[in-house]
Design goal:
543 residues, alpha+beta, Beta-Lactamase, 4 domains, six-stranded antiparallel beta sheet, five-stranded mixed beta sheet, 14 helices, 16% strand, rod-shaped, disordered C terminus
C-alpha cells in the first residue's frame, strides 16, 4: 500500500511538470507568431536575410515540431492518466485485499482459539473484539442466554460506554437482541430502523447508522446473540459483512457447545471419580470390617481357651499357696515358695485382665449384638462424654500446669439408633486420644451437624498430629504409639462400634496441624410417636 501511494505521488508530480512544459512551449510559440505577424521590422529583417520561400518553410517546420511535441505530450498525458487509473484500481484492490486479510487473520485466530484450553468467557471476549476489529465497527456486544433468569445477559462488550452495557439483561423477544434470540434469524439494520418491530427497544447514546445482529446457533437452538454497530455516518455494513459476522457467531456457538460438552464431561468424570472413591472407601471399609471381625472371632476363641488355661493355673497356684502354708518345710524355703507362687498368681491375674480386654475387643466385632438398638440423642451423649472426661482434660491438666480448652458446637440433629453406652465409649475414647495429643495444652473442639441425611460428629484437636504411616494404621488392633501407656484397642474398638452402628469413622491429620476424627451415622427414621421416646440426657451444656 505504501509503494502504491509513492508511485501515485510521483506520477502526479510528473503530470504537473509536463503541463508546465507544454504551457511554456505554447507561450514561446505564441510569442514567435506575434512577433512575426505584428512586428514588420522583424519580418523585414528575415526577408533581407532569407527569401520568402525559406521563411515559410522554416515557419511550417517550427509549427510542425510544435504540434508534434504537443501530440507527444498529449499521448504521454493519456498514458499517465491510464497508469494513474491502474494504480488507483490497484490501490483499491490492495485495500480490499488488506481488509480481507485482516478478516481472515481474525477468523483464523478465532478458529484457533476455539480449539484452545481457554475458559469460555475469555474465548467469547476474544471473538467479540476480533469481530469488531475485522469489520471496522464502533461497538460490539455478545449476549448469552441465562436459563436461571430466562433472559439474555451481556457477557462481553467492546467500544464506548462498555461498562454501562456489560452485564445488561434483555428479555427474550424484546429489543433487537431479544428478537433475534426468539426468532433465530440474523438482522442487517440501518438508519431507517423501525423501532415498532422491536418491543421495548433499547436506545443508544449515539445514533446507530448500521448494525449487524446474528444468533449463536447450537444444534438449531439459539444460545445467544452477537451484535456489531456503526456510529460513523460515512460507513455502512454490507451483506458481505453480515456473512463475515456470521462466521464469528458460528465460532462463538462452537465454543459454547464445546464448553457445554466439556462441563458435561467434567461432571461425569467427577461423578465417576466420586463413585470410584466411594467404592474404594466402601471396599476398604468392608475389608477392614471383615478383617477385624475375623480377628475378633479368632480372639474370642483364643481368649476363651487362654482364659481356661489361666483359670487352671490360678486354681493350682492358690492350692499350692495353701499347701505351702501348712507344709512341714523349712521357713526359708516356705517364704521363697510363697513369693514365687504369689508372682505366678499376679501374672495369672494380669493375664486375666488382658483376656478381658481381648474379649471386649472380640465382642465389639462379633457378627450380631445381643443389645437392642434404640433411638439416640447424640448431642446429649456428647455432653455426657465431655462431663465424664472433665477430670482428665481440666483438673489433671491444671495440676500439670497446662490448659486444655473444650469447645462444643452442637447443632440440632435428628435421632440416630444404637447403644448409648457404646457410643459414649466411642466419644470418650476420642476425647482421651485428643488429650494425649496435647502434652503442652491446646484446644479440643466437638461439633455436630446434619449432612446429606446423615449425622456428622467431628472431634478435633490442635495437637501434635500424625504422619501418614501412623494415620493409615490408627484403627488397627493393638497398634499404639503410647508405648506402655496404651494397649492399642481404644480407636480399634471405636471403629468396631461405629461400624456396628452402620456408620463410618475417618481421620484427618498432619504433623503439627492437629487431628480431626469424623463420625457419620445414619438418621433413625421413626414415626412421631417413636420420636417422643428418644432418650434425652439431663447433663448440663458445656460452656
Amino acid at each position: 500500500m505504501d509503494t502504491i501511494d509513492k508511485e501515485l505521488k510521483k506520477i502526479q508530480r510528473r503530470d504537473w511538470q509536463m503541463w508546465v512544459l507544454v504551457l511554456t512551449v505554447f507561450l514561446i510559440f505564441a510569442t514567435f507568431i506575434v512577433l512575426v505577424v505584428f512586428f514588420s521590422d522583424l519580418q523585414q529583417m528575415y526577408e533581407d536575410q532569407i527569401d520568402v520561400r525559406m521563411f515559410n518553410f522554416l515557419l511550417l517546420g517550427f509549427v510542425a515540431l510544435s504540434l508534434l511535441f504537443i501530440g507527444y505530450v498529449v499521448l504521454k498525458e493519456i498514458a499517465v492518466k491510464k497508469l494513474q487509473k491502474d494504480l488507483m484500481e490497484e490501490r483499491i484492490t490492495a485495500q480490499v485485499l488488506e481488509r480481507r486479510l485482516t478478516e481472515l487473520e481474525a477468523v483464523f485466530e478465532v478458529t484457533t482459539l476455539v480449539n484452545s484450553e481457554m475458559e469460555l468467557s475469555g474465548i467469547l471476549d476474544t471473538i467479540s473484539s476480533k469481530a469488531l476489529r475485522a469489520l471496522g465497527g464502533d461497538q460490539s456486544s455478545l449476549f448469552l442466554y441465562d436459563s436461571q433468569i430466562n433472559k439474555l445477559r451481556c457477557v462481553s462488550v467492546w467500544g464506548p460506554n462498555s461498562e454501562v452495557v456489560k452485564n445488561a439483561e434483555v428479555e427474550i423477544g424484546e429489543s433487537v437482541a431479544g428478537w433475534v434470540m426468539q426468532h433465530g434469524k440474523p438482522l442487517h439494520l440501518g438508519e431507517d430502523l423501525n423501532e415498532g418491530h422491536f418491543p421495548n427497544f433499547i436506545k443508544k447514546e449515539k445514533q446507530i447508522v448500521s448494525s449487524l445482529c446474528v444468533p449463536l446457533m447450537v444444534q438449531n437452538k439459539a444460545k445467544g446473540v452477537l451484535n456489531i454497530s456503526l456510529f460513523d455516518p460515512k460507513k455502512k455494513f454490507t451483506e458481505t459483512d453480515l456473512k463475515l459476522v456470521s462466521i464469528f457467531a458460528e465460532n462463538a456457538a462452537i465454543s459454547i457447545e464445546k464448553a457445554e460438552l466439556y462441563e458435561k464431561l467434567k461432571n461425569q468424570t467427577q461423578t465417576l471419580e466420586n463413585a470410584y472413591e466411594e467404592l474404594k472407601t466402601t471396599q476398604n471399609r468392608l475389608v477392614q470390617s471383615e478383617k477385624l471381625r475375623a480377628l475378633g472371632n479368632l480372639a474370642s476363641g483364643v481368649s476363651h481357651d487362654f482364659n481356661n488355661i489361666l483359670a487352671a493355673i490360678m486354681g493350682r497356684t492358690q492350692l499350692l499357696l495353701r499347701e505351702v502354708e501348712t507344709a512341714a518345710i523349712p521357713e526359708k524355703h516356705k517364704q521363697n515358695l510363697q513369693k514365687w507362687l504369689k508372682v505366678m498368681e499376679q501374672l495369672a491375674n494380669d493375664g486375666a485382665e488382658t483376656v478381658k480386654r481381648i474379649q471386649k475387643f472380640a465382642r465389639t466385632y462379633r457378627a450380631s449384638s445381643e443389645k437392642e438398638f434404640r433411638p439416640l440423642d447424640i448431642n446429649s451423649i456428647i455432653q455426657e462424654a465431655v462431663e465424664f472426661t472433665r477430670p482428665k482434660w481440666k483438673d489433671e491438666a491444671q495440676l500439670k500446669g497446662i490448659h486444655i480448652g473444650m469447645d462444643t458446637k452442637l447443632e440440632d440433629l435428628s435421632p440416630s439408633s444404637g447403644d448409648r453406652e457404646e457410643m459414649r465409649e466411642v466419644l470418650t475414647n476420642l476425647i482421651f486420644n485428643s488429650i494425649d495429643a496435647l502434652p503442652d495444652g491446646g484446644k479440643i473442639k466437638i461439633s455436630t451437624r446434619m449432612r446429606d441425611g446423615m449425622l456428622e460428629v467431628k472431634v478435633s484437636d490442635t495437637g501434635l498430629g500424625m504422619i501418614e504411616e501412623i494415620k493409615s494404621r490408627v484403627f488397627e488392633p493393638f497398634f499404639t504409639t503410647k508405648k506402655e501407656k496404651g494397649n492399642g484397642l481404644g480407636l480399634s474398638v471405636a471403629y468396631g462400634i461405629v461400624s456396628r452402628h452402620n456408620g463410618h469413622i475417618a481421620v484427618e491429620s498432619e504433623p503439627g496441624e492437629g487431628t480431626t476424627f469424623t463420625i457419620t451415622l445414619p438418621e433413625y427414621r421413626v414415626g412421631e410417636a417413636e420420636k417422643a421416646e428418644v432418650e434425652v440426657s439431663s447433663s448440663q451444656v458445656i460452656t
